[in-house]
């Protein structure tokens, strides 16, 4: 331990430890630092529980966490709730810790400031004293995974530590490093274990050494790539812990250069990957170099080598490694290493209809084609609708299944991924997610693959794109047009409108304003006024007010077309007829549930026709919830496919909650049950839009509860309007 470190340590802890024991404490802290390689914030937590002569006023690990959060957010305040969410405790617990936080800051050159309705922040009064405190506790150098201490960040950090260690790490060490108790560590550690196992890694624990993973080298690298958390190119690699530092070590500029070199070669090839996949490959290239240089090489099965060597991915991987070796060194890779990079590129292909799967791998493409046909037959049996003739339905599905078959063959299917919100957005489309769940369940009965959230999102996007192309029936509108300068100008002002929306307009009759009195409202769907008024909002003058009216004054700009379309022409689409009839909506208020299983049990009891069906429904919902949650945004949407005459009509039961309640670990506003069949394309499209609106417009759920048919029609109308 250096003299500077010793003096900083003594200076900090002289306030807390009796003077005679201070050198012993300094030696203990220094020894821990040298042995474990941990930063001082971690050593501080590890050793404090064993400190001799500990006083009650000594800093708690939770207080240190609060100080850390506040110190790393100097430009903004943090509320008790924000701190609670970061640290994983209640806001009440945070408030209870604040007196100790204030005392700690007061004794180390700073003070805690609280602003009403805004939160807390740290004001530094003595920079030298506060810098000393910061240096010893390392509160300004905490790893990002520990600062943003939500559940996901904790799982990433724990996974990376367990995957990276060669000798093992104890649970007590992990708890200290994350400032968690043994009980609080249990859940994130269990999730980290499941993450490792999804990559085929075995978690072993031995007395005296702790936990570590066992498994093939390529599995370890894939897992380490995923939990590094740097799938955006402007982020930096988190090398805060000593085990992963050696595998992730790379300068920021060099990492950017490696990534751009790889992307240049990729652009010049027929292969294309989605953006986050290219970020993963860039990180993998760093890990691969560091692992190989330390003697950890991949050994692949002969069938894998034979399969990948006959594709374009093997020479592409050779080209990438050859170029990187020339420019940076450390990339002279043996055959198995080159082959696995090719496999990685193959497994991460995006969906691209310009690329023929048979040109990539005829065997996989043939299997994907057969599986696609079976899935389309299943969908027809399940929904009564034939998806196959829809534009792109066959080709898109074959591409998705082609990637799935390749991933399964090379053992990369079913791994847990940290996907970005925009990559998973179609999971918030309840109907598309439900169709995807059913397809995955069917495929798993005929094909032994593992699924993950991204596959579910891909299939949901597939169904969303197909339904997006479905068109509602159109009844062209009959309009009247007026102009304050006469009927000829009334005719002129509508020419552009008719040219732009010919399929929505049957006829436009020019006339003077007073002539509207003789028009039968049953023969007129709307009036276009050209009366000189410049106000787009408010009352539009006319002699009749029992039909829609809109302003159109010789088209002052393109917005006039959009406004007329949104207010009048959108009614040409026969969307209202596709919605459930008013009697098929039911709102149940003052409903209380305690667990998802209890809600499923209630629904099964209400909608099951006999005990056997009730038990089957309950089992199906519980199993699906464990695999793929029914929660979409702040709403839970539960489906029941019904047979027979009643199954032809969609029925909705809406359960608005008085207060947000927990569903698993996220809060929800409402529960929704959807029963009935999906045997009409337009009705399926309308239902998809309706259910998606529950997620998109949570602030309007109460309005739906007040008048379901009106809000359902409003949501569909809104979906047809231009922005």
TrEMBL record:
GO terms for biological process: regulation of DNA-templated transcription. The keyword Repeat applies. The lineage of its organism: Bacteria, Bacillati, Bacillota, Clostridia, Eubacteriales. Keywords: Repeat. Pfam families: HTH_11, PRD. This is HTH domain protein. InterPro entries: BglG_antiterminators, HTH_11, PRD, PRD_sf, WH-like_DNA-bd_sf. Residues 249-355 form the PRD domain. SUPFAM superfamilies: PTS-regulatory domain, PRD.
């Amino acid at each position: 331990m250096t003299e500077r470190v010793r003096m900083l340590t003594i200076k900090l802890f002289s306030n807390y430890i009796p003077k005679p024991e201070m050198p012993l404490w300094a030696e203990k802290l220094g020894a821990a630092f040298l042995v474990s390689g941990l930063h001082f914030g971690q050593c501080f937590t590890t050793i404090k529980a064993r400190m001799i002569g500990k006083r009650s006023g000594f800093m708690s690990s939770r207080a240190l966490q609060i100080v850390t959060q506040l110190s790393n957010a100097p430009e903004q305040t943090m509320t008790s709730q924000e701190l609670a969410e970061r640290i994983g405790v209640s806001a009440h617990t945070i408030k209870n810790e604040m007196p100790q936080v204030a005392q700690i800051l007061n004794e180390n050159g700073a003070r805690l400031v609280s602003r009403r309705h805004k939160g807390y922040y740290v004001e530094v009064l003595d920079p030298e004293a506060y810098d000393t405190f910061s240096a010893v506790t390392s509160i300004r150098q905490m790893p990002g995974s520990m600062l943003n201490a939500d559940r996901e960040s904790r799982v990433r950090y724990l996974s990376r530590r367990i995957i990276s260690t060669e000798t093992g790490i104890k649970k007590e060490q992990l708890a200290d490093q994350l400032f968690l108790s043994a009980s609080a560590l249990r859940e994130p550690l269990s999730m980290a274990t499941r993450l490792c196992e999804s990559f085929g890694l075995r978690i072993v624990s031995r007395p005296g050494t702790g936990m570590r993973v066992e498994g093939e080298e390529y599995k370890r690298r894939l897992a380490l790539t995923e939990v590094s958390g740097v799938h955006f190119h402007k982020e930096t690699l988190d090398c805060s812990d000593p085990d992963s530092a050696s595998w992730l070590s790379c300068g920021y500029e060099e990492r950017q250069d490696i990534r751009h070199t790889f992307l240049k070669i990729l652009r010049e090839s027929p292969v294309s990957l989605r953006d986050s996949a290219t970020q993963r490959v860039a990180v993998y290239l760093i890990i691969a170099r560091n692992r190989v240089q330390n003697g950890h090489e991949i050994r692949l099965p002969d069938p894998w080598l034979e399969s990948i060597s006959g594709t374009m991915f093997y020479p592409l991987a050779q080209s990438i490694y050859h170029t990187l070796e020339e420019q940076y060194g450390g990339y002279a890779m043996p055959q198995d290493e080159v082959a696995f990079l090719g496999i990685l590129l193959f497994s991460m292909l995006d969906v691209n209809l310009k690329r023929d799967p048979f040109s990539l791998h005829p065997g996989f493409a043939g299997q994907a084609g057969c599986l696609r046909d079976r899935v389309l037959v299943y969908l027809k049996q399940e929904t009564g609708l034939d998806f196959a003739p829809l534009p792109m339905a066959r080709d898109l599905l074959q591409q998705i299944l082609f990637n799935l078959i390749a991933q399964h063959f090379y053992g990369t299917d079913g791994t847990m991924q940290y996907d970005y919100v925009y990559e998973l957005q179609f999971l918030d489309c309840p109907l598309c997610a439900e169709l995807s769940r059913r397809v995955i369940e069917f495929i798993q009965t005929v094909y032994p693959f593992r699924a993950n959230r991204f596959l579910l999102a891909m299939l949901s996007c597939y169904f969303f794109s197909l339904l997006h192309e479905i068109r509602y029936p159109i009844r062209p509108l009959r309009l009247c047009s007026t102009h304050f300068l006469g009927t000829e100008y009334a005719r002129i002002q509508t020419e552009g409108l008719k040219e732009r929306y010919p399929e929505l307009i049957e006829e436009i009759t020019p006339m003077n304003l007073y002539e509207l009195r003789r028009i039968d409202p049953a023969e007129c769907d709307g009036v276009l006024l050209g009366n000189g008024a410049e106000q787009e909002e408010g009352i539009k003058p006319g002699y009749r007010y029992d039909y829609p009216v809109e302003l159109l004054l010789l088209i002052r700009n393109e917005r006039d077309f959009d406004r007329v379309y949104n207010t009048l022409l959108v009614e040409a689409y026969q969307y209202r007829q596709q919605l459930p009839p008013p009697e098929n909506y039911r709102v149940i208020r003052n409903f209380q549930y305690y667990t998802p299983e209890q809600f499923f049990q209630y629904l099964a009891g209400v909608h099951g026709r006999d005990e056997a069906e009730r038990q089957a429904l309950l089992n199906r919902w519980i199993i699906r919830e464990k695999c793929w949650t029914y929660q979409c945004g702040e709403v839970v949407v539960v489906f029941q496919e019904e047979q027979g005459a009643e199954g032809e009509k969609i029925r909705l039961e809406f359960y608005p909650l008085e207060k947000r309640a927990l569903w698993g670990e996220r809060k929800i506003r409402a529960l929704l049950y959807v029963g009935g069949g999906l045997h009409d394309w337009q009705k399926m499209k309308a239902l998809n839009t309706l259910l998606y609106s529950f997620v998109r417009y949570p602030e309007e759920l109460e309005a739906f509860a007040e008048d379901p048919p009106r809000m359902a029609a409003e949501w569909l109308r809104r979906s047809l309007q231009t922005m």
